[in-house]
Design a protein that fits this description.
Layout: H1 11-15, E1 23-25, H2 28-37, E2 40-46, H3 51-61, H4 64-73, E3 74-80, H5 85-99, E4 106-110, E5 116-120, H6 134-147, H7 149-163, H8 176-187, H9 204-215, H10 222-240, E6 254-255, E7 263-264, E8 267-268, H11 269-286, H12 289-306, E9 316-317, E10 320-321, E11 331-332, H13 340-346, H14 349-358, H15 389-396, H16 400-418, E12 426-427, E13 430-431, H17 432-449, H18 452-472, E14 478-480, E15 483-484, H19 491-507, H20 513-528, E16 529-530, E17 535-536, E18 541-542, E19 545-546, H21 561-576, H22 579-593, H23 603-611
Parallel strand pairs: 1-3, 2-3
Antiparallel strand pairs: 2-4, 4-5, 6-7, 8-9, 9-12, 10-11, 13-14, 14-15, 16-17, 18-19
Helix pairs in contact: 4-6, 6-7, 8-10, 9-10, 9-11, 9-23, 11-12, 11-17, 13-14, 14-16, 15-16, 17-18, 17-19, 18-19, 19-20, 19-21, 21-22, 21-23
Length: 621
């Protein structure tokens, strides 16, 4: 019998609506029941394309015995962290402070007032490798709540007090940009590109800032040259690696190894929009056509795979899928990887030989042992480019044109075959913020390439949000199947969409996009500006009261809304000539200077700071 999630819109919540766990959505009612029944709340947060969320769901939440323990001891709440990033951010901050790490699924136990008493991420159902299993943790927390409640609540009070302290540092000096470049240089992987070791994330904001700094110096300046070298090497490594979908375009989430070879196979919309913009900007600087081809591949993937009938774009594609139509369990990478015999069967012998040499196809699979410690990819190949067209032409004694034609034909054949496989789950909800990043990329491509197709996609997506906005007089966080969710829009939704509208204005100055961007900026200021923190905040609510006020100053997989807002305001000031926008940008910069201890963690802030001393961009060839 379905639980209370059956009436929700979120694909993630609906995935759990048939669990034997008595899940409830986040609500005042759920916490009222916890107080009435004198139980802890178990809060589980994740998203529909999260691999480890699937694992914990299968092991624990679909298990009748585990569910019985959960239902007996707790009121159980599920949230989609993409739909409710405000709640997720609050308790993720708790996890990072108390455990030193975070991630999804997020598992946190709360009292009836929403205060966290214990948390972690993924837990196996039973004790394993010296770690307590989920069932034992549930039973022990129930015991502590019954016998030692005062200790749990004292801990909760202490942690909440710590979380509410506002971190503040000495104002940054004039060497922020140099410190940023130094940090990048110190952890840059000279051999393989990227920053740090495994896992390697794309970090487009980091690369965008390196390009900004490179453009602002003369071409022969050592710092400028190094910034550009790190950018180009990383973009090249990502484009050649397995994180890049060589058949349909677009990028997977991150590389599990330092080689950019084996990815975590899910595809997220926020990555596509940002990376398309990054590759476009790199092409604009250098003129290297291969950079443009990567960007166009991303945009083609979005328009051919992720486009909703509304004209906006879906959220994500799953890493996991069924290898065959009659398979019992999904496998990570099943849709995206290849067995050598498939390639031999689908392609003519010479084309198969050329393709296999180009993309490192091996009979036993091409994952290194350290990239696949559990042997899950045995016999399967992740496409990654290891030989150039020139190498292949020499190896097979033919022209480079013949190699190009052969590979293009092979990619088309394999893509058509891949589309006949069981498709991975697609999260088809529409998130305002992530669409804003995508609109920006499409508009930029339309302007730089004079391409009507990309500009039309950007315009259609923007019009979808404008129509919804005019209906209700405000933005929404997410939308699916003709309905808006009840989740409120957050600062990211306003800021990222404003960012997209500004790019659209540059491409279509007759479209009145600038005036709507200004209207949204005013709405953002009225609703989400916090004077005491001098920034835009989230205020997750329970029983009509804010649990905490959160200001985001980290440019991670998504930009900090406070930092991207500075860039928006700087552009609005230039476009309108209004000094109020410049003053507001400077106020945000000043506040960020007092909060940021590591410029490497805030590249968009560094970029905004660099823009104050912008010079004419240089061109590299």
């Amino acid at each position: 019998m379905p639980n209370a999630l059956i009436g929700e819109q979120s694909p993630y919540l609906l995935q759990h609506s048939d669990n034997p766990v008595d899940w409830m959505p986040w609500s005042d009612q759920a916490f009222a029941e916890a107080r009435q029944q004198d139980k802890l709340v178990f809060l589980s947060a994740g998203y529909s394309t999260c691999h480890w969320c699937h694992v914990m769901a299968h092991e624990s939440f679909e298990n009748e015995k585990v569910a019985k323990v959960m239902n007996h001891h707790f009121i159980n709440i599920k949230i989609d962290r993409e739909e409710r990033p405000d709640i997720d951010a609050l308790y993720m901050q708790y996890l990072q402070v108390t455990t030193g790490q975070g991630g999804w699924p997020m598992s946190v136990w709360l009292d009836g007032e929403g205060r966290p008493v214990f948390g972690g991420t993924y837990f196996p159902p039973e004790d394993k490798h010296g770690r307590a299993g989920f069932v034992r943790i549930c039973q022990e927390l129930a015991r502590l709540w019954r016998d030692e409640r005062s200790k749990l609540l004292a801990h909760a009070d202490k942690v909440m007090e710590h979380l509410q302290k506002i971190p503040e540092t000495e104002a940054q000096n004039n060497h922020v940009c140099s410190c940023y470049l130094k940090s990048c240089h110190e952890i840059f992987d000279v051999e393989l590109g990227g920053f740090g070791g495994a896992p390697k994330f794309p970090r487009p904001a980091l690369l965008d800032t390196l390009m900004t700094l490179a453009k602002q110096e003369c071409p022969n300046d050592p710092e400028s040259t190094e910034a550009w070298r790190m950018t180009l090497r990383t973009l090249q490594a990502m484009a050649l690696g397995g994180m890049h979908d060589h058949l349909a375009g677009g990028f997977h989430r991150y590389s599990v190894d330092r080689y950019w070879h084996i990815p975590h196979y899910e595809k997220m919309l926020y990555d596509q929009g940002q990376l398309a913009t990054t590759y476009l900007e790199a092409w604009e600087i250098s003129g290297d056509v291969w950079l443009l081809r990567v960007a166009e591949g991303i945009l083609s993937y979005l328009s051919e795979t992720m486009l909703d009938d509304s004209g906006a774009f879906h959220t994500a594609e799953d890493a996991d899928s069924f290898e065959t139509a009659d398979a019992q369990h999904p496998i990570e990478g099943a849709f995206w990887t290849w067995r050598a015999e498939e390639i031999q069967r689908l392609l003519p012998p010479m084309d198969a030989a050329i393709f296999s040499a180009a993309y490192n196809i091996q009979a036993n699979g091409n994952a290194r042992p350290e990239s696949d410690p559990h042997g899950e990819l045995e016999g399967r190949n992740t496409l990654h480019r290891v030989k150039t067209d020139a190498n292949l032409a020499q190896l097979y004694d033919c022209s480079m044109r013949a190699i190009e034609d052969s590979l293009a034909t092979s990619r088309a054949t394999l893509l058509a075959a891949r589309l006949k496989r069981p498709l991975p789950h697609r999260d088809d909800k529409i998130i305002t913020a992530w669409n804003g990043l995508t609109i920006a990329a499409l508009a930029k491509a339309g302007r730089l390439l004079n391409n009507k197709k990309w500009l039309e996609h950007a315009t259609t997506a923007a019009m979808f949000f404008k129509i919804q906005y005019l209906d209700d007089g405000d933005l929404f966080r997410s939308w699916r199947s003709g309905k808006k969710s009840s989740a409120p829009a957050i600062a990211d939704d306003y800021v990222f969409l404003i960012h997209g509208l500004i790019e659209l204005h540059h491409a279509d100055i007759e479209g009145k996009w600038l005036s709507w961007a200004e209207e949204l900026q005013q709405k953002l200021d009225d609703k989400l500006w916090d004077e005491s923190l001098a920034g835009y905040v989230m205020r997750p609510q329970l029983q009509g009261k804010a649990l905490m006020t959160l200001r985001n100053d980290y440019d991670g997989a998504e930009p900090s809304p406070n930092h991207l807002a500075i860039l928006n305001l700087q552009q609005l000031a230039k476009a309108t000539g209004m000094g109020t926008y410049k003053k507001q940008a400077d106020a945000l910069l000043k506040a960020a200077c007092k909060r940021i201890t590591d410029p490497f963690a805030a590249p968009i802030f560094v970029r905004a700071l660099a823009n104050k001393n912008d010079r004419s961009p240089s061109t590299r060839n």
